[in-house]
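Notes from hallway chat w/ T.B., transcribed later so I don't forget. T.B. wanted the structure written out for a chain they're using in a teaching module, and asked if we could keep both sequence and structure tokens in one place. Agreed to drop them here.
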Amino acid sequence: MTRKLFGTDGIRGTANVEPITAETALAVAKAAGRQFMRGDHRHTVVIGKDTRLSGYMLEPAMAAGFVSVGMDVVMLGPLPPPAVGMLTRSLRADLGVMISASHNPYEDNGIKLFGPDGFKLSDEVELEIEARIDNGALEVAPAHQLGRAQRLDESGHGRYIEFVKSSFPRGLRLDGLKVVVDCANGAAYRVAPKVLYELGAEVVPVGVYPDGFNINQRCGATAPARMQEAVVTHGADIGIALDGDADRVILADQKGTIVDGDQVMALVARAWLQNDRLTGGAVVSTVMSNLGLERYLSGLGLGLVRTPVGDRYVVEKMRSGGFNVGGEQSGHIVLTDFATTGDGLIAALQVLAGVVQSGKAASEVTRLFEPLPQLLRNVRFNGGAPLEDDRVLAAIRDGETRLGAAGRLVIRKSGTEPLIRVMAEGEDEALVDQVVGDICQTIEQRG
């Protein structure tokens, strides 16, 4: 069965256009509610969201759907997805919901579902929920069994703040550190500055004035220039840029130089290996992580297990293989000792711990390896299947031959747009640029 609603990370699209409408949100809530109603206990669902205007449409629609099938609803307000996962487990809820389109602009929104264990749902369960909608199996509860709804804004935020602080090594403080934190006008705009302040840092907050439209707008992890500039302007020791739902983080050292997810994974892996905390003997990341990371980990006696792009695939591999450090170059860092999904704030605290414990500048702590030249370009196509075209396949084979054993070529189709993503890396920057350019040109000429 082909999935119609759920993609690689929940349901996502333009707000008030199918499938991101109040009607579909209501149907998804009814179907998911029925899917997770097991036993005679009072069933509960927790709902978090980011700061998009459309959240005011989707949150009440989903709450109504869950109440109508007999589930109690706890609405958390703006909080990151890992907070939803944590509170789903902490409150012994049957289901968790995050309403967010992550790093996308405000016009988009999405729905992510978490099981009672706090992890995102599997493809199989998502298919079963879709089947309930397709079959019209959306029966509601009788009047005397309707659920209730309540808000848990302040206490929910407080629980998450203490949860994040508990991930920071006991006995360490951030006293004396000046930290810029860019919250992307998103889900962590209230909690992230508080966590850093309560741990002792002098905090320079950026992107903490959401208005429903400015989430990810020239700020946050996907546009870190604002954070970099603030680090230099304020003479900060380090900068942190979260994305709209704060499951992704990009950092900058005291010079404003970017620290990406590969460097963060290297730092955490080394620290946890030294503390005899790392499990599985490897780090899990995607095909996009730099070869420099792979070589660095190999020098530590560790492996790099690669997955398709998407943090859910990273988490699935971590759970099946017993690994506790994983993530993506883009800044999704998954540390399953603490959270069930990527948590930008917890990842940032691991880096800050390394800075504090070393007594060195961030630039000396966060640059553990030199990445190989890597280039990613997106090329648009008009219909058809370009990756099945003989000319494109020949160009890809030629690129692989030219890069040789010391390089890599990753070609993949976007799951949300008519784009082919072409990534190459190798020792020779000029060659990498030529290979990517030749493949993109071939795809374009195909039409």
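Follow-up for T.B.: The chain is about 35% helix and 20% strand. Might be a good example for the class.
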